[in-house]
Task: structure prediction
Amino acid sequence: AQKITQTQPGMFVQEKEAVTLDCTYDTSDQSYGLFWYKQPSSGEMIFLIYQGSYDEQNATEGRYSLNFQKARKSANLVISASQLGDSAMYFCAMRERQTGANNLFFGTGTRLTVIP
Amino acid sequence: GAVVSQHPSWVICKSGTSVKIECRSLDFQATTMFWYRQFPKQSLMLMATSNEGSKATYEQGVEKDKFLINHASLTLSTLTVTSAHPEDSSFYICSANRGQGNTEAFFGQGTRLTVV
Result:
């Protein structure tokens, strides 16, 4: 089964508007971490935000916030006040802590296009 | 600034030759680094886990004799694509974890390999 599911291959948002990128995950671990990365056309992976499974508060980093709903196993990324430079691929990822493997499992990504 | 540096950012090589890609953690020690491969318009797939001072752990389906990994120091891991073929053309990217509890996962800039 897919560990990370991103159901939106592409999204469009008007500049200065907010947008939500969906991510659901599947794990039997009690301890895990959820990440969001931005990948521009250059290919680099830019870390955006992290949410630990035991964190009670939703993570926020500037214009990025993570809407963590543990019971629903979802970790949606919210980008507020979109900017043209936000146009990129966005990947949701998970690390399962209990298994001891510290690698990340990635979703298929969402391509975000910000419209002027 | 970058905390994980990957070199080269792109390389073109002839079929049958070998290519070495370096991944360095710049301001922290990484006992474990990860090598991912990304085909065009696809997600990142873990190839192997590089362990300092011991053998790398390869994912199922990844040929260890073709993708040689060496983690000779706490700040450097190398991936050598041996006897490269055109089907090895891809984007290769490394990552390392930093921070207490490994909450931060940083990526190198990636290497775009083209085998002609």
